[in-house]
């Protein structure tokens, strides 16, 4: 590909039946606001495929997780605790469904045909136009960094950072360290492939096996540490502290008016609303707030 030839961008969303209503809201908002992408890959547990199959068509591609997971990783069918799934193998420690969602993101971004991917959690809903052609090559790949966020108040993030450095063969991290977790994250396929190759070179194992052996890992922290730990990739990337998502991270429910205020006060770069899936704010209130915001914008434009 010529350096001046525009590349391709697709969207990736892993989800499951517990987030069905949130996923429907996301799909509707993607169709309404997001442009210039090739496909929207929706990856679900095999047993949830029938529930999501009606969304398969056009640019939206619903995939079974088994198409992307290693064949040596098996779900423990009789073990479900607090709605969590568990997977076992002879190669690594048991892992949860949350871990397998991370594995399918990495695998999808490495083997699907587009140049770049916009990874979107299913608890997002777009409320502004988002032209993803701005993310495509030859534009620099965007890496969102929350500088110094990983500290003693974020013990899991510290563990994930340490795991990333270990499997990538990077020096042990110093804290506070940078955080790379967000609700909308941009990955480059060639960088993901290089990250996989680095993990396998360093650990002498299949990359998925190495991560499952570690068990305490984060796909976003691993990718971010890989880019920041490589001078060539770091120099070529567009490092930003701005997020595409306007996020409410806490468990306290929000009123419709509070959501509307969030939307009204969102900086221009934020195109998506994300209220964490563990939050108990009714989906109907989120939808109503989004529609009220759209209606207000339409009246102002008129």
Structure description:
The structure is a single chain. By secondary structure, this protein is of the alpha/beta class. The chain has a single domain (9-301), classed as Alpha-Beta Complex (Spore Coat Polysaccharide Biosynthesis Protein SpsA, Chain A). The protein is 38% helix and 24% strand. It contains 10 helices and 17 strands. It has helices at residues 20-33, 49-52, 97-111, 155-168, 189-203, 207-214, 219-228, 231-236, 256-265, 283-301; strands at residues 9-15, 34-35, 40-44, 60-64, 74-81, 84-88, 95-96, 116-120, 124-126, 130-131, 142-144, 146-150, 177-179, 184-188, 238-240, 245-248, 272-275. The strands form 6 sheets. A 5-stranded mixed beta sheet has the order 4-3-1-8-14. Helix 2 (49-52) links the parallel strand 3 (40-44) and strand 4 (60-64). Helix 3 (97-111) packs across helix 5. The chain is globular and about 55 Å long. The N and C termini lie far apart (44 Å). The mean pLDDT is 93.
Write the layout of secondary structure elements.
Elements: E1 9-15, H1 20-33, E2 34-35, E3 40-44, H2 49-52, E4 60-64, E5 74-81, E6 84-88, E7 95-96, H3 97-111, E8 116-120, E9 124-126, E10 130-131, E11 142-144, E12 146-150, H4 155-168, E13 177-179, E14 184-188, H5 189-203, H6 207-214, H7 219-228, H8 231-236, E15 238-240, E16 245-248, H9 256-265, E17 272-275, H10 283-301
Parallel strand pairs: 1-3, 1-8, 2-10, 3-4, 11-15, 16-17
Antiparallel strand pairs: 5-6, 6-7, 8-14, 9-17, 12-13
Helix pairs in contact: 3-5, 4-7, 9-10
């Amino acid at each position: 590909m010529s350096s001046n030839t525009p590349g391709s961008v697709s969207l990736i969303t892993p989800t499951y039946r517990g987030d069905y209503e949130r996923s429907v809201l996301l799909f509707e908002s993607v169709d309404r606001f997001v442009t210039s992408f090739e496909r929207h890959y929706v990856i679900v547990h095999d047993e949830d495929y029938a529930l999501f199959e009606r969304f398969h068509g056009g640019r939206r591609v619903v995939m079974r997780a088994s198409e992307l997971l290693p064949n040596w990783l098996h779900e423990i069918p009789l073990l479900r605790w607090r709605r969590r799934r568990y997977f076992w193998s002879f190669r690594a420690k048991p892992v949860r469904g949350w871990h397998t969602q991370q594995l399918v993101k990495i695998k999808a971004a490495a083997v699907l045909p587009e140049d770049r991917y916009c990874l979107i959690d299913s608890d997002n809903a777009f409320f502004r136009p988002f032209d993803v052609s701005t993310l495509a090559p030859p534009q620099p790949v965007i890496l969102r960094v929350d500088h110094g966020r990983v500290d003693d108040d974020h013990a899991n993030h510290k563990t994930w950072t340490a795991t990333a450095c270990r499997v990538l063969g990077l020096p042990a991290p110093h804290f506070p360290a940078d955080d790379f977790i967000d609700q909308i994250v941009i990955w480059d396929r060639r960088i993901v492939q290089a990250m996989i190759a680095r993990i396998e070179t360093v650990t002498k194992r299949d990359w998925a096996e190495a991560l499952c052996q570690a068990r305490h890992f984060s796909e976003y922290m691993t990718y971010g540490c890989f880019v920041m730990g490589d001078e060539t990739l770091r120099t070529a990337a567009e490092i930003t502290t701005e997020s595409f998502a306007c996020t409410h991270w806490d468990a306290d429910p929000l009123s419709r008016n509070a959501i509307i205020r969030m939307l009204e006060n969102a900086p221009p770069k934020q195109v998506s609303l994300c209220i964490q899936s563990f939050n108990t704010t009714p989906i109907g209130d989120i939808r109503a707030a989004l529609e009220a915001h759209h209606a207000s914008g339409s009246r102002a434009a008129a």
